[in-house]
Structures are given as structure tokens and as C-alpha cells.
């Protein structure tokens, strides 16, 4: 019976597999092998193999410098990022002048949202077209924080600056003055009381009994006399909140004859002001950043732009 086994015989030649070698491994043929693979690869393949150039020392650095002239923006941006990470003098000197953008390249710019006073309150302008329309100036007149090739990098930079700006005393002073005059403003859909409840903000809420507030304090881990409060400003704030219950009980002020809208404005204004103050003194900066997002909007925004002429940019981080 004939042997039908697929096993190779003693003098058979065996073909190798069809799977490509790992992109992070040393390429067969050294730097020339890497060049050959790069020449026939698509955009994603090229991006994945570029970090492996560092395996070839000076020759790999020379290759990455050449790739800085690649026609594909994402490819040459990746080469720039790899050179940034290389602790080699040759790489540092090559990228010292920045990253070259060509005409027609599309990039993501991170801008600081603008505060515009409209004779009654402030508007937070969070997109470039509106800024261009209101001020009549081209977008570059608005503070541009950074430019990025990859949107993911722009999103990281935008969030970091939003978080930083949200904790600044000067920007927080505008919080309760933004968007009061626009009846269609989406801020009117934001409920500060519900937000405080959902995030367990330790301030006195309307109609809340003192016993309930003290229970919330204890549930949050505070001692009955607040003796375990490690932040002095936070302790002073909470003690003042407890005292306010007694003051309100003595006042018993009725608002039946007052303007309902004015009362709602005062309550909301007071709650927003106190919420910001509590988040500051308790150093809950992540929640303060989220409050801005939920109640008003972004303190930074991302704008996609097309480069009109060749220009070098100096990245502050990753492209």
C-alpha cells in the first residue's frame, strides 16, 4: 500500500509558513531587510515596524530620519515619536527644529475654550466656528494649546488641560455666571441638587434635615465631631454647614410672596458656589472637573484643521 503520509521525506525541501515575522523582532537581513519590508508595507504595517528600527543603532536612526519625509502624515509622525523616545544625541538634534507639516495635512489642534461676556452673563465658547463668527478673527487668535497628528493624543491633551483649568480659582469664579440669560440653554436642564446627591457632595441641600446631613457625613467616614478631618479648610467648611441648619431653623423665612424664578436662581447660585468651594477645600479635583463638563461644558476643545502651507510645529508631547 502506498505511503500517503504528508510528512516530508529525507530529500524533500520544506516551504516555510506564510505568516509574516513579528513586527517587534529583528528583521532577517538587518536594516536592509527592514527597509524592504517598509517599502512594500501599507500604512498600518509601516507604523508598527518603525519602533523596531531602534534595534539597529545608528543605521536605524538614519532610517527613521529618512522616514520623516514620508508622504503619509501618520507614518512620519510615528517616526518622529520614535525619535523623541530615543535617548540618542543624533535623534535629538534631528528633531530639534520640530515636526514639518505639509500643505494639505490634516491635524487636530487643542484650543482653550473662550469666555465671552454678553453684557449680562458669560458664554463659554467651545468650538472654533462660533469663535470665528463672534470675534471676526481667524481661529489662530484663540489660544491654541497644542497640535496633534493623532486624535487620541489630542483628546488626552485636551482632558489634561480641562482638568487643570477646572481647579483654577479665576476660572471657577465664572462658573455661576455662565449661561443665565438663554432660556434654551442646555444648562437649564442640569440639576445641581441631583448632581450633588448622585456624587454625595457634603453640603446642605434644600429641605434636608440636620440629622440626615450628619448621617451622610458619618457614612462618608467623618467622625461626629469631624476630628478625623485632615484638611483644615474642609473641616471649617463642614462645621459652617452644620451651623447653617441652626440659623435656618431660627429664621424660618417664608418666600411665598417672592418671585419664584428669583428664588430658584438664588438657590441654584448658592448651591453651585458652595459645591465648587467644597470640591476645592476637600481637594476633589476630579469631581470638580466633571462638574464643569456636566453643568457647563468643556474648558478645552479639539478642532480638525487643514494645513495651508508648510510649517514646523514644536510638539509639547506626543504628536
Provide the gyration radius in Å.
30 Å
Low-confidence blocks of residues: 4-9, 11-21, 23-27, 249-260
User: How many DSSP-defined strands?
Assistant: 7
The number of helical elements comes to 13
The ordered H/E elements are: HHHHHEEEEHEHHHHHHHEE
How far the N terminus sits from the C terminus, by CA atoms, comes to 67 Å
What summary fits the major beta sheet?
Answer: 3 strands, antiparallel
- Helix/strand/pairing class, anyone? mainly alpha
**DSSP strand content:** 5-15%
> How many separate structural domains?
3
How would the global form be characterised? elongated
Strand sequence of the main sheet, in spatial order? 5-2-6
Helix content: 40-55%
The mean pLDDT is 78
Region (Disordered): 1-21
Protein name: HEAT repeat domain-containing protein
Organism: Lusitaniella coriacea LEGE 07157
What is this structure's SSE topology?
Blueprint: H1 30-40, H2 43-49, H3 57-67, H4 73-85, H5 89-94, E1 99-101, E2 106-112, E3 114-117, E4 122-125, H6 128-135, E5 144-148, H7 151-166, H8 169-172, H9 192-198, H10 210-219, H11 232-251, H12 260-281, H13 285-295, E6 300-306, E7 311-313
Antiparallel strand pairs: 1-7, 2-5, 2-6, 3-4
Helix pairs in contact: 2-4, 3-4, 7-13
Amino acid at each position: 500500500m502506498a505511503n500517503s503520509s504528508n510528512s516530508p521525506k529525507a530529500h524533500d525541501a520544506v516551504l516555510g509558513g506564510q505568516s509574516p515575522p513579528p513586527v517587534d523582532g529583528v528583521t532577517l537581513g538587518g536594516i536592509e531587510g527592514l527597509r524592504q519590508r517598509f517599502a512594500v508595507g501599507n500604512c498600518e504595517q509601516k507604523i508598527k515596524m518603525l519602533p523596531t528600527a531602534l534595534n539597529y543603532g545608528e543605521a536605524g536612526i538614519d532610517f527613521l530620519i529618512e522616514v520623516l519625509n514620508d508622504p503619509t502624515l501618520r507614518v512620519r509622525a510615528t517616526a518622529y515619536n520614535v525619535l523623541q523616545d530615543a535617548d540618542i544625541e543624533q535623534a535629538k538634534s534631528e528633531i530639534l527644529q520640530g515636526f514639518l507639516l505639509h500643505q494639505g495635512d490634516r491635524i487636530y489642534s487643542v484650543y482653550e475654550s473662550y469666555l465671552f461676556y454678553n453684557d449680562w452673563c458669560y458664554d463659554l465658547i467651545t468650538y472654533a466656528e462660533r469663535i470665528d463668527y463672534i470675534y471676526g478673527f481667524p481661529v489662530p487668535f484663540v489660544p491654541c494649546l497644542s497640535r496633534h497628528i493623532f486624535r487620541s493624543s489630542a483628546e488626552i491633551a485636551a482632558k489634561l488641560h480641562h482638568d487643570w483649568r477646572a481647579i483654577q480659582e479665576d476660572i471657577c469664579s465664572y462658573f455661576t455666571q455662565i449661561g443665565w440669560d438663554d432660556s434654551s440653554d442646555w444648562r437649564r436642564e442640569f440639576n445641581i441638587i441631583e448632581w450633588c446627591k448622585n456624587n454625595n457632595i457634603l453640603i446642605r441641600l434644600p429641605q434636608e434635615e440636620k440629622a440626615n446631613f450628619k448621617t451622610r457625613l458619618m457614612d462618608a467616614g467623618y467622625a461626629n465631631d469631624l476630628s478625623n478631618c485632615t484638611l483644615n479648610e474642609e473641616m471649617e467648611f463642614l462645621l459652617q454647614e452644620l451651623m447653617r441648619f441652626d440659623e435656618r431653623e431660627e429664621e424660618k423665612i417664608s418666600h411665598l410672596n417672592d418671585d419664584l424664578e428669583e428664588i430658584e436662581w438664588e438657590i441654584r447660585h448658592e448651591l453651585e458656589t458652595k459645591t465648587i468651594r467644597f470640591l476645592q477645600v476637600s481637594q476633589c479635583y476630579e469631581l470638580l472637573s466633571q462638574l464643569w463638563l456636566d453643568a457647563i461644558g468643556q474648558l478645552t476643545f479639539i478642532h480638525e484643521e487643514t494645513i495651508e502651507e508648510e510649517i514646523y510645529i514644536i510638539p509639547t508631547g506626543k504628536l
